[in-house]
Each structure stands twice: as structure tokens, then as C-alpha cells.
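Propose amino acids for all 307 sites.
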């Protein structure tokens, strides 16, 4: 009886072991299969994503569109690069009309509602170029040029060492409290002009003629504007004749109305063949200034056109 019981026990134990071994093998096979499936799925996902990125990159570069899909940073980055390439390939527009140059300046300048010259002394076949050298929310400086062909705003040819463009004028706007107002607007007593120093400039206007240190000055006032012509004494420039032309011009042309003061300085260099004209005026909390080597009437014409 004991031997029979032992024989019956062995098969039962063996059956249990075989059953357990079979379950473990099946679980192992399932795990192995799952791992293989996950690996295959991952490879497929990665390949698909790479294909989309390459496709989006091509589309972005061709169309200049930006991929804004937040779920795929690689695609979004590729889209931005495509946009940058597209924008970078665009050439700035060449501006053949003065009004287009002024509009382009207004679009580019950070100083809001700024007034700019709108008329320039250009001959037939000449074009206006402009280069911004200061661009802040409270200040600006722009140089204007005469060119033989249309150029874009801030075109590098304007400031190149071998540039064929001719400097026309510089225009600047700054906060008044940042400037020395006494230097910009020197005080001159024009109320009581001695008879031997008075010059009749027409239209009821008298000028003050002075000489000092080899220079001669003629100064007069029109409204809030003070105007002065300076030349070298030995050149014997006819300052009164020049002043009369300016007075006559201002009878039909109006300078900007300054808040308190405006000053026109006409400075002839030795020899009298070249001139530097500086026109400054206060406008609210700002001070405007135009500098040019053009003749006085052309300088005034540019300032008269400011709007």
C-alpha cells in the first residue's frame, strides 16, 4: 500500500510541475511578443515623424508658411526656418517716388506721428534715397541722398565708401530737454537796432548788420523765427541781397510754427562757394533740425514741406 501511494503521488507532482512550466512559457512568449510589437511600433512612429518633418520642411521653404502645430516641436521649428528663408530671400523694394520714401520712413521709424520733409531739390532723372541712423521711440536721425536710380530704404549703396549718391540733407528730432537750447537758439536783441547797423530787407523788416573777427553777420526776425547769415568779411559777400531773397520767399511760404523759438543759420565758408544751412525749431517737447549744404532757398523749401 505504501508503494502504491508513492507511485500515485509522483504523477500528480509531475503534472503540477508541467502545468506551471507551460504557463510560464506562455507568459514568456507573450512578453516577448509584446516587446517585439512595441519595438516595431516605435520604429514605425519614429519613421513616420521623420517623414512628416522632411515634408513640412519642404513645404515651409516653398511657401514661407509657419507650422503652428504645438504637438510636434520638430515640425514647428522646421516651419519657422522655412518662413525665415522665404522672408530673407525677398529683396527690399526700390523706391522711385519721394512720397514712397516718406511712407517707408513712417513705417520704419519708432517715433510715432513724427513730421518729416516731403519735398526735396531733385533734378530730372534724380531720385531720393534715405538712410536711418538713429531710430528710437523718442528720437530719430535720417540722412537723405540724391541718387541716379531708385534705391530701397537704408540701401547699403548710400553709405558705401565708393557711393555715387550725393548727401542732400540730415534731419533730426530729439527731446528738447536733452539739448542745449541756448546754443541752438542764441539770443539777439533786434528791438532797438541802431540806424547805422540797420538794413532794410523789405516788407517792413529790418536786419541788424554786424562785423567781428573777420566775419560779417546779418540777423533779422520774422515772427518767432530768427534768421542769420554769416560770411567771411574778405569775401565781400552781399549778405543783404541774400537776405532779401529769403524775406521775399517767406512772404509766400510758411515755416513750421515753433513752440517758442526757431532759428535759421546760413553759414558761407571762406571763398563763398559753399554754404551750410542749419534750421532748428521747437515742436512741443521735441526739437527738429535740418542740416544741408544746399542753397538757402532749397533748405527753406525742405523745412516748409515738413508735415
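Proposal:
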Amino acid at each position: 500500500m505504501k508503494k502504491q501511494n508513492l507511485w500515485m503521488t509522483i504523477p500528480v507532482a509531475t503534472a503540477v510541475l508541467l502545468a506551471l512550466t507551460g504557463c510560464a512559457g506562455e507568459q514568456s512568449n507573450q512578453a516577448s511578443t509584446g516587446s517585439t510589437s512595441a519595438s516595431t511600433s516605435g520604429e514605425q512612429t519614429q519613421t513616420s515623424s521623420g517623414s512628416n518633418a522632411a515634408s513640412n520642411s519642404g513645404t515651409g521653404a516653398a511657401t514661407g508658411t509657419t507650422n503652428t502645430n504645438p504637438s510636434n516641436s520638430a515640425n514647428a521649428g522646421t516651419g519657422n526656418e522655412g518662413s525665415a528663408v522665404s522672408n530673407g530671400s525677398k529683396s527690399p523694394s526700390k523706391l522711385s517716388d519721394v512720397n514712397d520714401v516718406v511712407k517707408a520712413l513712417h513705417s520704419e521709424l519708432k517715433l510715432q506721428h513724427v513730421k518729416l520733409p516731403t519735398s526735396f531739390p531733385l533734378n530730372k532723372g534724380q531720385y531720393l534715397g534715405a538712410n536711418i541712423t538713429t531710430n528710437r521711440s523718442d528720437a530719430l536721425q535720417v540722412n537723405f541722398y540724391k541718387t541716379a536710380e531708385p534705391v530701397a530704404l537704408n540701401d547699403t549703396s548710400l553709405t558705401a565708401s565708393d557711393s555715387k549718391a550725393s548727401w542732400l540733407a540730415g534731419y533730426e528730432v530729439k527731446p528738447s530737454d536733452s539739448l542745449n537750447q541756448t546754443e541752438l537758439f542764441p539770443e539777439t536783441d533786434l528791438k532797438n537796432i541802431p540806424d547805422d547797423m540797420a538794413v532794410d530787407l523789405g516788407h517792413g523788416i529790418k536786419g541788424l548788420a554786424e562785423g567781428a573777427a573777420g566775419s560779417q553777420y546779418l540777423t533779422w526776425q520774422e515772427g518767432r523765427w530768427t534768421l542769420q547769415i554769416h560770411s567771411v568779411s574778405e569775401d565781400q559777400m552781399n549778405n543783404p541781397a541774400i537776405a532779401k531773397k529769403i524775406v521775399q520767399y517767406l512772404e509766400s511760404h510758411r515755416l513750421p510754427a515753433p513752440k517758442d523759438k526757431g532759428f535759421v543759420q546760413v553759414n558761407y565758408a571762406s571763398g563763398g562757394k559753399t554754404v551750410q544751412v542749419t534750421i532748428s525749431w521747437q515742436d512741443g517737447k521735441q526739437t527738429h533740425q535740418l542740416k544741408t549744404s544746399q542753397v538757402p532757398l532749397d533748405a527753406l523749401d525742405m523745412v516748409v514741406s515738413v508735415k
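The chain is about 35% helix and 25% strand. The radius of gyration is 41 Å.
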